[in-house]
Each structure stands twice: as structure tokens, then as C-alpha cells.
Amino acid sequence: MFYSLLAIRYSLTRMNQFHFIDRRKNPKGKSLGNRQRFLKRARTQIKEAVNKSLRDRSLKEIEKGEKITIPSKSTAEPRFRLDPDSGEREMVHPGNKEFTAGDKIKKPPKGGGKGQGKQASDSGEGEDSFQFTLTQDEFLDIFFEDLELPNLVKRSLKEVKANAYRRAGFTVAGSPTNMNLIRTMRNAHGRRLALRRPSTREVNELKARLFELERISQPSEAEIAEKKALIIKLEEMEARRRWAPFIDPLDVRYNAYEPTPVETTSAVMFCLMDVSGSMGEREKDLAKRFYMLLYLFLTRRYERVEVVFIRHTHHAEEVDEQTFFYSRQSGGTVVSTALEKMLEVQKERFPASDWNIYVAQASDGFTQSGDAQLCVEMLDRQVMPISQYYAYIEILDERELEVFSDADSGAELWRAYRGFAPKWPNFAQTRIARPQDIFPVFRELFSKNAKEAA
Amino acid sequence: MSEPALKQAPLFEDNDWDFAHLKTTFNAIEEIALNDLGLEVYPNQIEIISSEQMLDAYSSHGMPLMYKHWSFGKHFARDEQMYRRGYTGLAYEIVINSNPCIAYLMEENTMTMQALVMAHACFGHNHFFKNNYLFQQWTDAEGILPYLDFAKKYIAKCEDEYGFDEVEKILDSAHALMDQGVFRYNRPPRLSEADLLAKIAARADYEQKTFNDIWRTLPNLEEPDDEMEERQAEVKNIKLPEENLLYFIEKASPILRPWQRELVRIVRNISQYFYPQKQTKVMNEGCATFVHHYIMSEMFERGLIGEGSMMEFLHSHSSVVFQPDFDDPRYSGINPYALGFAMMQDIKRICEKPSDEDREWFPALAGSGDWRGALKDAWANYRDESFILQYLSPTVMRNMRMFALEDESENPHIEISAIHDERGFRRVREKLAGMYDLGMHEPNIQVVAADLDGDRMLTLRHAVHRGRKLDPKTLEDVVWHIHNLWGHKVKLDEEPA
Are residues A249 and A283 in the same domain? Predict the structure, then answer.
């Protein structure tokens, strides 16, 4: 078995002399290093472009890469060139139709649509802008770059223990796939030397001599004696070879792997939404965009993110995503039921000691009278102490936004939250009326500086 | 039995390729290339790559091994964009002037295309690389891959040691001077000299041992005295004016540290390596196109490829040699494939079936019959400029309907100075040759003085030819880069030559 493994290796190396080499399986992304250097180089411009493009982008598109246009100045590669507008030039072109020697053609006015502009832009300079595509990862990285999750320090990310296998030296037992050939062969070689195992070459030499002697038809006394001695010697050697085999189970070593606990971070995100009649398609759509953004953001910070959808009218229930966003229910509006449900689910499945808890609540701001106060109490006593972050988004229509331009005025829920918010730095409330608001609002909620200021 | 046994069964019928068919086809092509055309080639190494890998290779000068730099990332991003949106196709192949000659074939190619590409790259380009005098004298096919490997590792090491930004600064500035980083008249030393590489390794090792953070701010302290003396002696031997700016800066810059000089040298060597390719675009592509056309036609004659394949081949071939007229929206200058192929086909015609005109213009060639010898002679001993001057025939000028324009910046008119007629042939030919003379298109800039003992000012001179000044749009930026490498004042004068 050892031999066959080695033989495969040799045959692989010998293949290189073949005419054709199939490189398609070679690792991809050879130019990744170049790309990273390029992105780093044009960082500022790219960032500006990313922020600009986000303003008119829908959330569905966030899953895709993005075309980015940056001014080419930042990545110009200047070379000495001859000024195309100076001196005398002579050129030869193909396809003459009507010209004869001596014809004069009026030059087009300067700066006006010069057909030759294309040549100058060959290397990207000369053009005013440079366009390329960012992958989704690069795009999100840049977008989230100066955002951070609030309160990371206060409660360090709780870890779920998972095992990863790490190399841990060598062992004498293991599965054949993990066998370490070099160690094994080295041990065997050492042992063979120590035990003076006769090599195949030595044995063959003696055998060759023996055959020689046996071929002599009338051996002399001395030759007979030598032959006898040789036979005894050979037997001894064979015995020694059997006794000290080429490879002994003692020699075999295996790569050892040990499971090591790795701390993985995980978070749960509760989406609470009012689905009563007053929340129409538009409102739900806005809420959805916000949730998705938050989800994407969390997935970039945590290895594992669970999402729980809780919808409510006058009573709350946990539902799947599809139902959450697309089915309707009629009924009154009691926000506190959603909070109760959320706490119930959290106690049952997401102990605060193991999970980072994020809550995002979307509503149009209306609730049964008196319920707002109940919500505030529940938040204050039960929800906020275990949450990393709580975001309340009030979805208005555009007219309302103007009416409520003052942060202190608003529907009942808004005012109630407003009174209690200062107590908890990890509580945020904000209003959204148009899709364009979502990115700025999101950035505002999570931007590093705003948090420090708060 | 009644049919002559000449026609064989086609080597392949299927559109898809596989390695077995590639191999038999390669052998058939090789047979024609070596025994019929009598080409002389480096051993071939053919590598199959995916389109993404092709893009990769594209963006770094088409070299399989290249150091890392942001500009290659930028080119990749641009090429990828163009390709994905369908503005440009990818080349079917890339071939490298090395020994063995490495050709990349794209996996997307059909079997017919693979045959075309093998004939084109593995025999056409390969023969040209091995035999053309420019490549013979100015590049080192044996040494280029080891050298690039060294360069890549060296630069990666510098990035580890001195940081990405420091390395980038030097490379950016050196790249800006790449066109001024070649020796045009005397032969550069071979790349792969083992003792040279060993010396660099020893130098790096020395730096490692003597590295001391305290001295970081003091320039040049790591350079051992003997090396410095050697370098300065070399500087003294440089006779001004010197046309190779990178070479002069590498040797004489007062501020560069040894590793920075090495980076400048790497950029300079790579630039030098590509210099012959810039001067032989028409010939190189013409040679490869002529060879693939001949081989594919010959294979068809012998029945080695079927009619369907032949049609496919002719379609690709005619798009490759398509030359739009000057007033066509697709026109972007003369297509080197078209011009080269037309000229070489015409040489063959002149040798075999000359007209009276040809006898007058090419008395030595006309009717000689030995077109193989004539072409091989041309491939070996000319570059684009001299090739056109020597071989462009009235027939080709007439067929392509060439005309010459004169454009003076002060004059409100462009004048047609010659067309494809009896009076104009010589003038058109001369002007066309001039377009392929790099000396006419690249500014001629030389180091004329460097006050190494005084204020260290570097004086450069642009010899202005026919009133063509440097483009002010890039002038300042490039001078800034020179300053970055030189460290002291840099002056650039423009004077009529």
C-alpha cells in the first residue's frame, strides 16, 4: 500500500512532460490581489460612488453586484505622450473612395466630436470616468464600512461552542487516510539502520556470488566451504530481514487532529410588525426593506443569524416570512401583544446568555389607547435589559411626515417611546416615509460617530 | 481503389474538443508546419484555460507570472466589464515568447478553433519568436519565466518588508517611465545570468542581516560600500545624453535605496522584453495568420478537416483579417492582421505569378517560385517599418485603397498628399512605414545632465520632431513621478531636434 501511494506521486510529476496541460482546475482568482490593491487605491472615490448609488437602489438589487463609476483621475497611469494637436503628422488610411492627391479637407472645429478620442482612452486615462462592477460582498463591505453594531463592548458577543479540527502533531493510531508518509518512512528507515537490516542489494550480491559458485561444475574445497558459508550467511540475512521488516507497524505515524472549541457568535433578530388594516402594501414594503438591511448587516457581523417574524393585530403570532409580508389580517391593534409573544419565544428558544438579541419593530404608530404605556413598561422592565439593540420604525405617508416634522409630536406610540428612549442608549426610534429614506436612516442608526455622540 | 489514396478521413467531426483529438490534430499541424513550410520552432507547451483565467492573463501583460499591482486590477476590472457586456470578445489564444513556447487555448473554443489557434500560435508566432532578429537580440526566451518568477517573489517580499504603499510608490513612478525604459541601440544584458540573480539574493540577505531600525531614516545606509562604488563607477561610465531614463535613474538616483533600485530594474527589464513586440505587430500577426491560413487550407486539401470545419475556419479567419474603411464607424486604424496577411499572401503571389509591375518593383522576388524562402527571410530580418518599406507592393496598396494625409496643426485644412496611383505608391509606402516607426510616435526624451556633485538637478530634454510637443495633460504628472524617483529638482526642456 505504501508503494502504491508513492507510485501515484511519481506518475503525477512525470505527466508534466506531456504536450498539453489542463489549467482549468487551477485555483481561480489569481488576480484577486491586484483587485484588492485597486479597490484600496480608489477607496475614497469608490465609497462616494457606493453611497450615491444606494440612494436610488431597491433592496432586491442589494443581492447583486453593482456597477460603479469613479473619476479616472484617481487611478490614472500617466505616460509621456505627444500632443495630438501640435506639429505636423502624416497618416495612411485604407478605403479611399474619391480623394486624389492634392485634395484639401477642412478640419472639424476643435473640441468637436473628435473621432480619434477613442485611442487616447485605451488605458483608461483621457476618459473622465472609469466604470467597473463591484461584487455584492465588496459592495456591502464598503457600504457597511463605517457602521457598527451598537453595544458590542457592553455585552461581548455570546458564543456558541462549535468544534473545529486542528492539527495536533502525530499519533500512532489513526485512519489510513491520515497517515503521514514522511514520518512513517523516516521511522522505518531509522529502525532498519538500528537493527542492521540487510538491504536487498547486499542480499542480491551474495545470491549472485552463490549462483556463480554453483555454476562451477567441479568446485574446489575452498569454493565448497565458501558456498556453505554463503548459504548460512544468506539464511541469517533472510531471517534478519524477516525479523526486521521494511516497514513495521511500530513505524507508522498518523497526522493527529484534535477538536478545538471555536467560539462562534450568533444573533437572533426579532421582526415585529403591525399587520392590521392600516398597514398597506406600501408600509409593509418599507418595513421589509429595513428588515432586510438589518439582516444583511447582522449576517456580516455574526456567523449565525436567526430571524423570528412576529406579526400582530390585537393578538400576536409567530409566522414564516411569506405570511409575515404578504398575508393580511383584520383586527384591532394592540402592540403589547407582540412584545409578549416575542418574550415568550425568546425565553423558550433564545436564552439571553447565549444569543445577541436584536429587535426591530415597524408600525404606523397607532395602537389601542392605553396600550402604549403598557408597551413602555414591558420594554423598560423586560425587553431592553436583554436586548442588544431595539429599533422602532414608524412608517408614515409623506403628508404625515411633514406634519410630524417635529420629533416630539406624533402618534401615541411615538410620544410614549420618545419619553422613555433617553433612558436606554440602545433604543432608537425613527420615521420613514419614502424608500429613499431607508438607507440614510439606517446609516444614522448605526453610524459610529452618532453612537459616540449619544 | 480507383480514387487516389490522398484524401484521408477527417481528424475530427465533432464540434467539441477533447485531449485525444487535440493531440492528433496537433501532430497533423506540426507535420505540415515543419515538413511543408519548414518552420523552426521552440518546443510547444499548450495550456487549456478558462475564460476567467484568460481575463487574468490579459490584465497582466498576458504573462502567466506577474507581480501584483493595482493597475493590473484596474485593467482586469475594465476588461471584465467589456467582456461581460459583450463589447469585446476574448482572444482565442495568448502566446508567450519563451522556451518552451507557451500557448494558452481557451476551453470555450470549438475543435476547429483549437486547430486554428494551434496553427496560429504554436507554429506561426512561435516561428517568428524564434527567428526574428529583434527577438533574437533583445529578448531572452530562456530566461524570461525564471526572471518573472524572481520579480514576483522579490516584489512580494518587499511588500512584506516595507509595506504595500512604499512598494506601490516606486512601481507607480517606474510604470510612468516604462516607455522611456528601453535601450534602443545597444543590446541589454541577458536576464537569467545566474550570478546576477545570486548577487541579488546575496544583497537581500545582507540587508536582512544588517537591518537596523534606527537607521531607517537615513537613506542608503544599507548599501554596502563596494556595491556603491561599483554603481557609481557605472554611473560615471554612462555617456550623456542617455535615452533610457529608467536605467539612468536606477543607477544614479541619489535617494533610492537598494531594494528600490531593484524594483526600478524589474520594471525596466519587463519593458525591454516587450519592446520587440511593439515593433513587430504587423509582421508577427501577419506571420501567424499566414501560417494558420496555409496550414488549415492544406489540411482541408488533404481531407484532414471536413467542409463544415473549413467554413467555420473561413468565417473566423475573415473576421480576423477584416479591414474597415476609414469612414466606417468600426474603423480604428489599420488592422495589423489584415495588413500583414495581405502583404505575405502577396509575397507568395509575386514569387509564383508575378505581373509586369511586380517584375519592375521586386526584380529579385518576382517569379523566383521560392515563396517559402522569401517569407522566412522576411520574417527573420525585418521589423514592421523596414518590412513595409521593403515589401509593400502596389497591388496591396491598390487593393486596400490606401491614401496618405498631411495634417499640420496650424493649417485649417488636411491635405491628401498621395493616393494609390502610379505617382503616389512610393510616398504612401514611405508614410505607412513611418507610422510603424516607434521613434516617430514615442517622444524622444533623454537625460542630458545630472549635477551629481552639486544641487543634484536632473535635466531632461525632449527633442521635438516636426513640431510635436509633449501632451500637457500628462506632462506634469509624469514629471512628478520622475521627481519621486530622483528626489531632487527635475527640469524638462523641449527643444527642436
Answer: no
